[in-house]
Design goal:
- This protein is an all-alpha fold.
- The chain has six helices and no strands.
- It has helices spanning about 1-25, 30-40, 55-75, 85-105, 110-140, 145-165.
- Helix 1 runs antiparallel to helix 4.
Length: about 180
């Protein structure tokens, strides 16, 4: 029995940690990557769930467009810091959404996944904010330019997460 729990936990837990980390860096990137995956690999765990919209190709497309827009808007001087309460709330909700959808797609508890995803996204928000501003100050590089590097990290991280999921079985396999 203990072995089966160890097999199930990584299939749910670690991918959510990865997606939620992305949500803390760019709030819409995590739902965009997850919806892209789910639209190509629908999971029965979402059948009948309110989260089934994440499997729709139209949702995936819309989220990709919004995520791209967020990457542009992030560089504008009028964009508030990610740790400002409204922005932080958005990242928490984004992490909760991907966590709930991932857990539910694997016949787990959407509530548990949402809690894990939301908390991880908040932690990632503060860590990525500290890194971005710290790198900018230490290197005398404009924050927006550091943000471009962060965008590249988000895209690479999301791509790696999608590659870490076996399409045939939908199980997580570390790279």
């Amino acid at each position: 029995m203990k072995n089966s729990k160890k097999k199930n936990r990584p299939a749910k837990f670690w991918p959510v940690m990865g997606f939620a980390t992305l949500a803390g860096m760019r709030s819409m990137s995590a739902p965009a990557f997850l919806s892209h995956y789910l639209s190509r690999q629908p999971h029965a765990g979402l059948d009948g769930s309110m989260l089934r919209f994440m499997q729709k190709p139209l949702t995936a497309t819309a989220l990709k467009v919004i995520a791209a827009g967020e990457m542009v808007a992030d560089k504008l001087p009028t964009t508030p810091d990610r740790i400002a309460p409204p922005a932080l709330l958005g990242r928490l909700l984004s992490g909760a959404l991907v966590g709930a959808a991932w857990y539910k797609s694997r016949h787990g508890s959407a509530l548990s996944g949402g809690i894990v995803g939301g908390l991880a996204a908040v932690a990632s928000t503060f860590v990525s904010y500290a890194l971005r501003t710290g790198i900018s100050k230490q290197t005398d590089t404009p924050v927006a330019l550091v943000g471009v590097g962060e965008d590249a990290l988000v895209v690479a991280g999301g791509t790696a997460l999608l590659r870490g999921v076996q399409p045939a079985h939908g199980e997580w396999r570390p790279l």
